Predict the structure of Helix-turn-helix domain-containing protein.
Amino acid sequence: MGKTAYRCNFWLPEGRVLTLLEYLKQARGLAAQIAAQIGTSPTYLWHLASGRKKRPDVALCIAIERATGGAVRCEELRPGVDWQYLRTSRQQDESINQDNGG
């Protein structure tokens, strides 16, 4: 059974990233759906979104970005992490693996 990315239900200008709060406010029950998918509670997501809890760990940032189909980015959730470096490093690793037949 594949995982579902819960995409936003309105048009976003290119390059626009939603905050977690904006994303969760889109539809009733969305926090519960996302929480179930990523293995946390809706309450914890709402605490993150409202600022009551300061920072999710890196793994949870990635899970939230995946679950929201990229509408909420890791950079929004943890701005202090060098996500660009991590994204670039992964792309380089994948390119090397392809070049080596992996």
Q: What stands out?
A: The CA atoms of residues 64 and 75 lie 11 Å apart.
